[in-house]
Amino acid sequence: MKRFFDWFNNLYPVWLVTLAVIAFFKPPVMLWFNSDWVFWSLAASMLGMGLTLSLGDFKAIGRMPGSVALGFIAQYTIMPLAGWATAKMLGLEPGLAVGIILVASCPGGMASNMISYLARANVALSVVLTLFSTLLAFFFTPMWTSTLAGAYVPVDAWGLCKSALQLTVAPVVLGVLIRWKLPRTADRIGAAGPTIAVIAFVCVTGGIVAASAEAIAKHFGVLALAALVLHVLGFGVGYILPKVLRYPESIARTVSIEVGMQNGGMAASLARIHFASMPLAAAAGVFSGVMQNIIGGIAAAIWKRRPPSA
Question: What is the pTM of this model?
Answer without folding.
Answer: 0.82
